[in-house]
Input
Amino acid sequence: MSEREVMEVDVVIVGAGPAGLATAIRLQQLAQEKNQELSICVLEKGSEVGAHILSGAVLEPRALNELIPDWQTKGAPLHTPAKSDNFLMLTKKRAFRMPTPPQMHNKGNYIISLGLLCRWLGEQAENMGIDIYPGFAAAEVLYHEDGAVKGVATGDMGIGKDGTQTTNYQRGMELHAKQTIFAEGCHGSLTKQLMQKFNLRADAQPQTYGIGIKELWEIPEAQSQPGKIVHSAGWPLGSKTYGGSFLYHLNDNMVSVGFVVGLDYENPYVMPYMEFQRFKHHPAIAKHLQGGKRIAYGARAINEGGYQSIPKLTFAGGVLVGCAAGFVNVPKIKGSHTAMKSGMLAAEAVFDALNNNEKEAIAYEQNLKKSWVYKELYKVRNIRPAFKFGFYWALIYSAIDTYLLRGCAPWTFKHHADHASLKPAKNYQPIDYPKPDGVLSFDRLTNLSFSGVNHEENQPAHLQLKDEAVAININHADYASPEERFCPAGVYEMVEENGAKRMQINAQNCVHCKTCDIKDPTQNINWVTPEGGGGPNYAMM
Output
């Protein structure tokens, strides 16, 4: 096999999301302030910056104000100020307006497309001389002989399904750096390896997750209410399943609607995608969408562990930032501002480490603990894990924690791994979900065509079963093949051939949400990067 080309830089950043781009920009700001030359390279596995970005999203601009104070004059795409907050408790037929929890007040915030914001941040970074390479997936962590991170290698292109080189074969490239910033987003494939190699979770709780499923709608002008924010809890989820919805009115007659289901659910027959589809038929929700058309679809896993699940953030040769580490404020339903701030703090520590010839930017973790990010996550640390006691008890506890204890309880609840929470199928009955009507609700494959997903078909599947027999002998036998239901893209399909069952993997459908890698009860699924540029192509998500 041919040698890989090597590129030497000062800093390589894996991922051009909010955290990665904030890191790059802050690093270059510091270099320019000191009149220093700093070579910074950002790798992005999506076909363009923002292609794999999906979020609600309401942005709290606190970190952006600190990073680029004049963002308004520079044309940042924050065009829809939040105007009204509505929190609903849903039953099957009715909606009850509840007081909006203080963490969910959005005065001063903006309803945005996070993908568009990332594209804008990418432009700011490139204007500063930062190199961004979309369509290049970091597929391997490189190490020095002493075990320190040396950089990353991009994946080979043009490998056929059988593992042999095609006529389009192109060897990946090695990027060697003094510091490597991992900003892969939630449950990144390289970050997962780093967690194990450096035992970064030794003093942290397991990370927990939700799956967020979203559609973008264009609605009649008469129904448009730019700035209106609606969140809900309750129906259609049962009292033992954590989750809720969001519905945001943007400018230009657009509505962002989505549903989040905590991946610690117990019933293997739960299908988050179908919970979302039937949710849209509730009268309180349907009235916002009727007469409109769905124009985009996507899904992404979300960190929910918060304060308890923050791992060790530094190691020799690199750091973790953003959702790769997990800084989402779940009660606030926001993580972009904390992700960006983590990147900015990492940049400051990495810059100092580079100037002092230090291998590990240990000041990053110390500075994070002194920052508003840490204080914000600490105050709400018990609200998400309280839902293990049941939905209604958790609501009561959340009110007590927020209004009486003010986040300063002398205890901290613990988390458990999501895959361990699934119970055997024999304890439950299958759920009879309503058939999508094609107007408000849609089947998965129809919706998938609105995600822009595309993979080179002649390549090895990037969704790997560690043991194919486990999918049949355990997952199917004990859990009724939950892969078929927790995937929002129809990747996993149980088929029968010659009287024997087999798990078929439709890898070309994958929207890179990572849910399978998280929720699989036997942890038999391993998600690795496909060829660079593959996956969804979100335009406005």
